[in-house]
Amino acid sequence: MEEVRRSTIFFTEQHLSYADILPPLQVRARIEVAVLNFLKDLNSPTPAISNLPMINRKTSNSRVNQGLLTDVSWIFLSRSCCTKSMTRESSAKSFIRAWKVMEMCYEILVQEKRVTQRELFYKLLCASPDYFSSQLQVNQTIQDVVALLRCSRFSLGIMASSRGAVAGRLLLQEPGEEIIDCTTCGSSGYPISGDLDLLEKLIMKTDARYIFVIEKRLAEDQVFNQIPCILITAKGYPDLATRFLLHRMTRAFPEIKILGLVDWNPAGLAILCTYKYGSIGMGLEAYRYACNVKWLGIRKDDLDIIPEESLIPLKPKDLQIAKSLTSSEILQDNYKEELAVMVQRGRKAEIEALYFHGYDFLGKYLANKVVQARVSFDK
């Protein structure tokens, strides 16, 4: 235990700020070290309630990694720390919440179980109603614990909830199960499991040349019959499991291009950027599943084929997102130009507007955009 204590993540200057993927025994050891440190402080000649040092997850602590030999970039957090203290009124409750979540996670790991964040919320709501009253408090505290113990949510026994699905030219096989042909999974596609262990063990085969990351719609058009592709969606902002599977496919099929199809609005670009760069909201896991997604459409050049009547006025929320994206140092200049045109015109366009040209138009649109992208994959 002393060896673990010397090498533990609490000596923050010795470690980069990322979340390890660890087996249950190591995670339990890190929780035990936190408890020992706490008890040591209480039993010292001058007893004191210790602080909990954790990586600062504010935007001011974010950094951008720019590839030297590639155009791949991603967001990460530096080693700057903040603390949760029992003695400060502003953080006293969050200090206790962190211990409550660690206690619950320890029990989950001992029992070799997994829970979703939603299931954990109800457990904590019943066990500690004075400290947990919302899902947001639980989610933030989980990230506090990740920042403290430097291990991933999945390592803590917390399973990702997934809305995602995949379709197209992909064969999947879970260990010991039959092969699943994702071209035959119907209009909803194959649902992506929230079990990251299972996703890591999937056996995958494909003859696809492209992966299309779609904001919403999946297989109704069966685009994969026209273009050798895989379609993947999180049906909005990407959840962890969908990002994990996409990243897993990029490792399994490194030669395949990843192309994004999102609404031409600030939220659509924010979704694309989450896949491409990661998200500070993910804390120490921000960078881990970033993928080099190219923005295929909808782009400002496509507005010529979208009727003016189909353009929708921007809302205040859109303008807030646009402002946040524009101020980001990681956002490339041509993306900022797209945002500027959106704000200037005060309009946005959804993918569905393309169906003005017919219900089979999406496949033709994507085929044409792919041809253009072959000429310039840097846009």
TrEMBL record:
Its EC number is 5.6.2.2. The keyword Transport does not apply. Keywords: DNA-binding, Isomerase, Magnesium, Metal-binding, Nucleus, Topoisomerase. It catalyses: ATP-dependent breakage, passage and rejoining of double-stranded DNA. It is found in: Nucleus. Its cofactor is Mg(2+). InterPro entries: Meiotic_Spo11, Spo11/TopoVI_A, Spo11/TopoVI_A_N, Spo11/TopoVI_A_sf, TOPRIM_Topo6A/Spo11, WH-like_DNA-bd_sf. GO terms for cellular component: nuclear chromosome. Signal peptide: none annotated. It comes from the Eukaryota. It is an enzyme of class 5 (isomerase). One of its GO terms (biological process) is meiotic DNA double-strand break formation. GO terms for molecular function: ATP binding; DNA binding; DNA topoisomerase type II (double strand cut, ATP-hydrolyzing) activity; metal ion binding. Its main location: nucleus. PROSITE patterns: TOPO_IIB. Residues 216-370 form the Topoisomerase 6 subunit A/Spo11 TOPRIM domain. The active site is at 122 (o-(5'-phospho-dna)-tyrosine intermediate). Belongs to the TOP6A family. This is DNA topoisomerase (ATP-hydrolyzing). It comes from Artemisia annua.
